[in-house]
Every structure is written in structure tokens, then in C-alpha cells.
Write a structure and sequence with these properties.
Length: about 100
């Protein structure tokens, strides 16, 4: 897998709400109504990442979770990062509408 160009990344992010490209990574913050809902989301994200074999950096705060994808091996954003951003967005949408 190879790195995406900045224009390829930006084109993909136009289809993903609230994701941003910065410091060779794509990231987004997710807000929750309670701390434990955020933790549940983190656990689901971790399981998904394990299934897909592409793992994010995760920062947990009070009612907020920040997810960041980059290829640590290649030092930038790949198609796998974009695919995981899509999957995590879908997961979030499913969790908040439950």
C-alpha cells in the first residue's frame, strides 16, 4: 500500500464529515452524552481496528474521543486510513442513533 497525495486525501475527506488532515494523519473528535458512551465507542473501535488490522491513535477525554489514523510504517495516510475513517464514522452514527 502506498501513501495518498494531499489532494487525494482532501477529496476523500470531502465525503467524510468533520475529519481533518493534519500532520500526516486524518483525525476527528467524537462527542458523547456520557463518559461511558465514549468508552463503549472506544471498545467498539478497537475491535473494528483489530478486525481490519489498521489501528488508530485514540485519545479519551470526558465525553469526547479523538481518533487519528496514519500509517506508522509509511509515515502518512493510506487508503486503509480513509477506509477506517469511513468505518468508524459509520460505527459512531450507529452508536448515537441507538
Amino acid at each position: 500500500m502506498s501513501l495518498l497525495s494531499e489532494s487525494q486525501i482532501n477529496d476523500n475527506l470531502k465525503k467524510l464529515n468533520d475529519w481533518e488532515f493534519k500532520n500526516n494523519a486524518v483525525s476527528r473528535s467524537f462527542n458523547f452524552s456520557s463518559y461511558m458512551r465514549g468508552i463503549d465507542f472506544v471498545n467498539s473501535t478497537a475491535s473494528l481496528a483489530e478486525e481490519e488490522n489498521h489501528h488508530p491513535d485514540i485519545t479519551i477525554g470526558w465525553c469526547i474521543v479523538k481518533i487519528k489514523f496514519t500509517s506508522h510504517d509509511l509515515g502518512g495516510v493510506t487508503e486503509d486510513c480513509i477506509n477506517m475513517a469511513k468505518l468508524v464514522t459509520k460505527l459512531f452514527e450507529e452508536k448515537v442513533t441507538k
